[in-house]
Amino acid sequence: MPSITENPVTIADYKGDVHPDWCPGCGDFGVLSVLQRALAEMGIPANEVMIVSGIGCSSNLPGFINTYGLHTLHGRSLPIAQGFKLANHAMNVIACGGDGDGYGIGVGHFIHAMRRNIDMTYVVMNNSIYGLTTGQTSPTSGLNMKTKSTPFGNPEMPLNPIALALSAGCSFVARGFSGNPKQLVEIYKAAVKHKGFAYIDTFSPCVTFNKVNTAQFYRDNTYEIEGENHDKTSKAAALERALETDRIGTGIFYVQERPQYEEFEKEVLEQPLVQHELGLSKDLQHKLIEQFV
Amino acid sequence: MSEKKNVIVRIAGAAGDGIASTGELFGKTCSRMGLHVMAYNAYQSAIRGGHVWLQLNVGEEKTRCHGEQPDVALLLNKTSPEVHIPDMKSGGIVFYDISKIKEDLSVIRDDLQYYGLDFKELCDFPGVSPVMVNVLLAGALIQTVGLDTGVSLEFFKEKFTKKGDEIVEVNQKVFNAGVAWAKANAKSGLSLKGDGKKRMFMTGNDAIGMGLLAGGLKSYAAYPMSPATGILHYLSTQAKKAKIIVKQTEDELAAANFAIGAGHAGVRAATATSGGGYCLMVEAVGLAGMLEVPVVLINVQRGGPSTGLPTKQEQADIKLVMGGNGDFPRIVIAPKDVEDAFFQSARALNLAEKYQCPVIILSDLFLSEHYQTVDPFDFSKVTIERGKFMKELPAGAARYKRYEVTEDGISPRLMPGAAGHMYCSGSDEHDENGELISDVLAGLPRAIDVRMKMHPKRMRKEETMLKENDINLPEIVGPKDAKLTLLGWGSTFDYIEEACETLRADGLSVNHLHFTDLYPMDREKLVEVFNSCNEIVAVENNMSNQMSKLILAETGFELKRFINRFDGEPFTGEYIVNAVKKKELAHA
To answer: How many structural domains comprise chain A?
Structure first.
C-alpha cells in the first residue's frame, strides 16, 4: 500500500454544510464545483485555503465551501485578501466576487492588485448584470442592453476586463465559462499554481435577470484559444484576442514570470507574519530610542 | 535677562529654505544638552514657496507650550519681517539674511535688536552654496542663545557623514562663521543650562509609530494624508529592522481593509489617516465591528470639514469616529501628549485583540507633528496581551464556533489555517458558526432568534470594557475642591495645565479634568466625577463642542460653558488664561 494515499484530499473535503441559495441554474454552481474540484485535484488541504469575497450573489460562495472564508464588503475583497495573504503567506488565498463587485465599485483595487502581484487568485463571476439587487446594468452589460436601471437601453460601452488586466500589468490573465468545466478546472489549477496575482474572468450566466448573456449565448459565441495555438507569453497576442468583437476567446490569455510581491519583502517574510514572536528585542528598543536622541 | 529659564525662538522663511533642518539642528543641540523643547510648526500646503515657520520654546524645566512672543527670531525670506516682527517680545533679537531682506526693519518696530548677516561676505570659501545661509544664521542663533556650539558641530558630523567629510566640514565652517560673527557683534546675555540628561526630540507621529512597534505591530497600511503621513514615513524606515509589512495602498478604503485582512489572519495591524481619509474608512470600521477583527485606526485630525485646513489644527472628528451604520462596539482613545501617544498606541493593540473590535486613536495635527523633547520611553511598561486568541485548538475540543455567545461578549478566536475547524466570517448578520442568516432565512423565527443573540453579544463587549476597568476615567489634576474646572481631551493637556498654573498664580481656584479615553463612557462614574466639580468649563479645539455633546449623549450631563478655538491653531496657555479671565468677569 503506498503511504501517499493515507490522507488524500478529495472533493468531499471541500463540500460545505450550507446549500447554496443561488437560483436553480445559476452559473455560480458550476464555478463552485469547478473550484472544489481544482483544489482537491491539486491536493491542497481545505484548511490551508482562505476564500475572501465581496458582496453580491456570487460573493456568497465562501459560505458554501468548506475552507476558511471571509464574506466582506461590496468591492473590498481584494484589499482584505491581500492584507490577509501578506500576514499569512502559508495560506492559499482566493478572492472572488461578481462583475459589479470587481469591475464597478472595486475596480480601483482590481487595477492595483494586478500591478502589485501578490501571490493569490482572483475569480470574477461575470454575468453582466446586478443580480442581488434584482437586475440593473453592470460594467460589462452590453451597449443598448435593457435592464431595470436602463429601460431605454444601456448608453455606456461595456468594460473589457481582459484588456484592462493586460494593460494593468496582471501576471496571469484568463477567461473561462462555468458551462465549460473541463477547461475551467485546468485554468483554475494553473491560476492557483501561478506565482503572483492570477485573475480569471469567469462567465457565470444569471438565469433570472440577464436574458441576453445566457448559457446558450456563451456556448454559441466562445471558443478555446489554446485550440488556435495561442502564445500565452505574448502580451500583444493576448491583447489581440482580448479585443476580438466577433467571438469570445476562453483560456489562459497571458502568463508572465516576474517576481511576486513577496520577493520584495523576503527578509520580513522568511516566516509567515502570524508565526513571528511579538515584541522587540532590547537591542532594537535601544536603536529606536537612539535615533531620536 | 540672564535669569531667564526659557527662551522662545522662531525660525521663518519660504518652504524649501531649510526651516525644518535648522529646527532639527537647534532642537537636537538643546535636547542633547538636557534642555526641554516644545516646538510648533506652522506650514502651508506647498512644497516650495509657501511661508513656513517653526517656533521652539526651550526651557531649563519642562516647557508645556510653544509659547506666544519670541525672544529671538531667524528670518530667511522677504515675507518674514512683516509677519513675525510684530509678534516679537520687546527687546527681542532678530537675525536675518540681508540678501533677501533689504529694508530698514526698525521702521516696523524700533524696540528690537536687528542683525543682518551677509552670507557672501562671511562665507567666502570653497564648497559653499547660498542655500546654506540657514546654517550661518543657525550658528549666530545658537551662539546668542548661549548653547554649547560643540554639540551642534557634533550633530553635523552624524547628519552628513554618509555624504562625505567634505559636506560635514563645509557645514561646520559655515556654522562657525555664524558663531564667530555673533560672538563679535550680537550681545544677548541669554544662557540656558541643561541638566545633561539626553532626551529624545521627536513628534507625536514618531511616538505613535514607535508605540505600535513596541506593541507588536506586524502589518501597517496607509494612504498618504497630512498630518498622518509621518507615521507611514517612520514605520517605512523601520520595517526591515522590525520585520513588519508596511504597505502604501491605492486609497484609504484599501488601507483600512488591508489592515482588517491582516488582523483577521492573526497579526497586529493598524492604519492611519486624517479625517477626510477616515470618512472613506467608515465602512471598514463597521466591518471590523461585525467580523470581530482586531484593528487599530489612527485619525490624526486636522481642520475640517472636507479638505478644510490641511495644515492646520482642529479636534473635530469625534462625531466622525463615533459614526458608521448600525451599532458595533469600539474604543476611542485620544492621547494627551507625545509620551502618552507611545503608550496608548501599544495599549490600543492590546485592547483591539482583547475585545476583537476596532480601536480608534484620535490624534491631531498639533500632537502628531510638533517636535518636543521627551525622556526615553520605558519599554518594560509595554506588555503584549492577546486575549482569547489561539493558534490551534486544544486536542479533543468540541466543534469550534467562531462567534460563540459568551457572557462577556468575547468569543474565543482561532487563527485561520488550523486544521479541521474551518469557519466563514461574514459582514452579514450570522450565527455562532458564522453562517449567514441574512438571505433566505431573514425574517424567519430562527433568524430573528439568532439576531437577538448575536447583536447583543457584540455590543456586550462595551459593558465588559467598563466592568474590567479597561477604560480609564478622566484624570483630575490640581486641587479637588477648586471653584473652576477646565475640562479637556486629547492633545490639549499641556496647554490646559499651563493655563491652570498661570491662573492659580493669579489667585484663581482652578483644576483640570482631562479625558484620554473618550469611549465607551461609564455613565454613573462620570456623573459622579462631574458632580464633584464646581463650575466646569469645557476647552475644545473645535466650534461645536463635540466632546461636550458626546458627554451629554452618553451621560446626560450637560456642559454649559465653553472655550473654543477653531481658527486653525492649537490653544496656548495664554489663550486659555485670557478666555477664562474674560468669562469669569462676564460670569461675575
So the answer is: 1
The answer to whether B246 faces chain A, any CB pair under 8 Å, is: no
Interface check B280 vs A, CB under 8 A:
no
B266: chain A residues, CB-CB within 8 Å: 87-88, 274
Q: In the CATH scheme, what architecture does the domain B475-587 have? A: 3-Layer(aba) Sandwich (3.40)
Residue numbers in B near A95 (CB within 8 A) = none
- Interchain contact, B219 vs A73, CB within 8 Å: no
How many angstroms separate the CA atoms of B259 and B297, rounded? 9
Q: What was the ipTM of the complex prediction?
A: 0.97
Q: Which pLDDT tens digits describe chain B residue by residue (588 residues)?
A: 334 589 999 999 998 889 999 999 999 999 999 999 999 987 766 666 678 999 999 999 999 888 889 999 999 999 999 999 999 999 999 999 999 999 999 999 999 999 999 999 999 988 899 999 999 999 999 999 999 999 999 999 999 999 999 999 999 999 999 999 999 999 878 888 899 999 999 999 999 999 999 999 999 999 999 999 999 999 999 999 999 999 999 999 999 999 999 999 999 999 999 999 999 999 999 999 999 999 999 999 999 999 999 999 999 999 999 999 999 999 999 999 999 999 999 999 999 999 999 999 999 999 999 999 999 999 999 999 999 999 999 888 888 999 999 999 999 999 999 998 999 999 999 999 999 988 778 888 899 999 999 999 999 999 999 999 999 999 999 999 999 999 999 999 999 999 999 999 999 999 999 999 999 999 999 999 999 999 999 999 999 999 999 999 999 999 999 999 999 999 999 999 999 999 766 665
Question: Does the domain at residues B6-190 carry the CATH identifier 3.30.565.10?
Answer: no
Q: Where are the domains of chain B?
A: 6-190, 202-381, 388-458, 475-587
Q: Which residue has the cell 488565498?
A: A93
Classify residue A105 by its DSSP letter. I
Q: Is residue A2, in this structure, part of any structural domain at all?
A: no
Report yes or no on A263 lying in a domain: yes
Of B202, B219, B427, the CB nearest to A71: B427
**By the 8 A CB rule, do B518 and B489 touch?**
yes
For residue B255, what is the nearest residue in chain A, using CA coordinates?
Answer: A79
Residue A24 placed within a domain: yes
With residue B564 as reference, give the H or E element that holds it: strand B561-564
Q: Which three cell numbers stand for residue B492?
A: 490639549
The CA distance from B377 to the nearest CA of chain A, in Å, is 8
Q: Can you give the pTM of this predicted structure?
A: 0.95
Name chain A contacts of B252, Cβ cutoff 8 Å: none
Element (H, E) at B144: helix B133-145
Partner A contacted by B399 (CB < 8 A): no
Domain limits for position A265: 9-290
Distances (CA, A) of A11 to A14, A79, A97, B133, B336: 5, 29, 22, 74, 56
- DSSP conformational letter for B398: P
Taking the Cβ of residue B420 and every Cβ of chain A, the question of whether any pair is shorter than 8 Å is answered with yes
The answer to whether the CB atoms of B426 and A63 lie below 8 A apart is yes
Sign of the dihedral through C-alpha B273, B279, B285, B287: negative
CB contact (8 A) between residue B435 and residue A80? no
Q: Rounded to an integer, what is the distance from CA A284 to the centroid of its chain?
A: 40
A66 located within any domain: yes
